[in-house]
Each structure stands twice: as C-alpha cells, then as structure tokens.
Amino acid sequence: MNHFELFNLPVSLDIDLAVLKSEFLKLQQLYHPDKASNKDEALIKSSEINHAFKALSNIDSRAGYLLKLKKQDYHLDQSISDFEFLQHALEIREQLDDARNVDELASLKVEVQQWIDSLSREFKIDYDAEDWSESRDTVRKLRFFVKVMADIDKSNDRLLDDDSFDLDDDF
User: Fold this and answer.
1) Are 146 and 59 in contact (CB under 8 A)?
2) Which of 78, 130, 161, 171 is 20 to 30 A from 11, alpha carbon to alpha carbon?
3) Distance CA 91, CA 84 (A)
4) How many angstroms separate the CA atoms of 142 and 64, rounded?
C-alpha cells in the first residue's frame, strides 16, 4: 500500500491537506501503541503512518514521493544547475537576510509562494509527460523554496517575539 492509499487520497500532487490530517489522526488513534495488544507491531505501524504523513504533508516531499512511486526518485540530492534559477534563489535569500519587519517578510512570502505554485504547475506538466529529468529538477527547486518558506516563518516568529518583548514589562 502506498502513502496515498494509506490515507484514502488520490495519487496526485494536489491533495486535500484537511483530509490528509483527518485520516492521519484516525490512523494514529487506531494504531496508537498505548492502546494496542501488540505494542511492538503498533509502534512499527505508527512509525510508518508518521513517515507517510510527513512525506505527503509538503509539496516538495509529495512530488519526490510521486517520483519514487515511478522509480524515478534518484539523484534528487544533486545540486541545481540552472544558473538563472540560482540567481533568483540568491536574490531571495538576500531579501530574507535583509528583511527587517513583518511587512517585508510578508511580501517575500507572497513571492516565494508564487514560485512554489509555478513550480508545482511545472512539475505536474513534466510528470504527466514522463519527463523525469525535468521532474527531478523541479523537485530540487521546490525543496529550495519550501525551505525558504520555513525560514521566512522562523524569521517572522523571531521578529514578532522581539516586538512583544519590552524592557518595561513586569516579570
């Protein structure tokens, strides 16, 4: 059974994340080690469920998993060789490093989401055409932008934490 089947989802890049989470919670409850008669078996099944959930939760890992199902997931750890893409990636990283407020981060987040959306469309086209080389390249790019998005969220949290800190606060 593949991860999509485990969660009763279509084998597709586009899935309903609410359904994924709902099915995940049902399965975790069903196979929770504290409730099972065979704790070792339940622990293994629970771990498999967690792994599958993690693989399908993010668009980059979901795309990589789709390639794995087609046995086309090799060399996903290679560097990106698209010079133009690398220039854009460097500019976005610099913008993130230079961001000083939540508005700048919000603007950057919109730009990164546009990249993710565009790359998702590109992946679907390449995947449907069975252009595995381009599909793998797109997964590498998606991974970059998903990581940037997580870094934006971390920076945003730090800025918000800093803004809420006031030396005049009573402790």
Assistant:
1) yes
2) 78
3) 11
4) 10
